[in-house]
Design a protein that fits this description.
Layout: H1 2-25, E1 33-36, E2 42-43, E3 49-50, H2 56-59, E4 63-66, H3 86-93, H4 108-111, E5 122-127, E6 137-142, E7 145-150, E8 155-160, H5 178-195
Antiparallel strand pairs: 1-4, 2-3, 5-6, 6-7, 7-8
């Protein structure tokens, strides 16, 4: 934890130097700065350190954007954005066409507080079998709920992210949540078909050309 927090502080300090240079040089007005990372990191939550699980601490990643004249300072957008959206957004911001076979979607309208019709209501997560001790699993996250399936263990976990943001109360076995569970399972299957991800593939059968 100490090494992790020292690393974060080092990044913050040096980002400050970058911002100071952009401001002093006059480049800030024509520079888009996007700050993000690959995933979050557990610091003891759920009794876990490291990452890999679909719980919020590991699933979520920072996404901060500074773009004078384009992004309103201090504004917050809560739409679901995934890392596959970064490349389309950067292409759009630079005025380039987005290849039709590119996964993801530009969130430039969200940054500019413009209407974005038919924006995603959920996104898909997959962690394959690996040499780590984390059991493989996949799931779907919406703005309000999360469904996780540890498919090699036959276990489901369902969380209400509004009323249980710490994900401590698994609702998958609650009869009162049967309808919601069914809807999320259907949504999960639809995303797997859309992304052509075989739920029976544990990562040991790669698709080769």
């Amino acid at each position: 934890m100490k090494r992790y927090l020292r690393c974060v502080k080092g990044i913050d300090d040096n980002l400050g130097k970058v911002f100071d240079y952009l401001d002093a040089s006059g480049l800030a007005t024509n520079t888009l700065v996007l700050y993000t990372s690959d995933q979050g990191h557990f610091l003891g939550e759920h009794g876990i350190y490291d990452k890999r699980f679909m719980y919020e601490e590991s699933l979520r990643a920072p996404l901060l954007v500074r773009w004078p004249g384009q992004v309103k300072p201090g504004s917050v957008n809560r739409d679901l954005v995934a890392n596959v959206d970064f490349a389309p957004m950067l292409l759009a911001a630079a005025g380039h066409a987005i290849p039709p076979d590119m996964q993801g979607r530009s969130f430039l309208p969200l940054l500019r507080d413009e209407p974005a019709t038919d924006w995603r209501e959920a996104f898909y997560y997959r962690y394959y079998l690996s040499h780590f001790q984390t059991p493989p699993h996949y799931g779907v996250r919406t703005a309000t709920h999360k469904l996780i399936h540890f498919h090699t263990l036959g276990e489901w976990e369902l969380y209400d992210l509004l009323n249980d943001p710490g994900e401590m109360n698994n609702l998958a076995g609650d009869p009162a949540q049967a309808s919601l569970l069914k809807t999320l399972k259907e949504q999960l299957s639809a995303l797997q078909r859309q992304l052509q991800d075989d739920p029976n593939d544990h990562g040991d059968r790669p698709k080769l050309p």
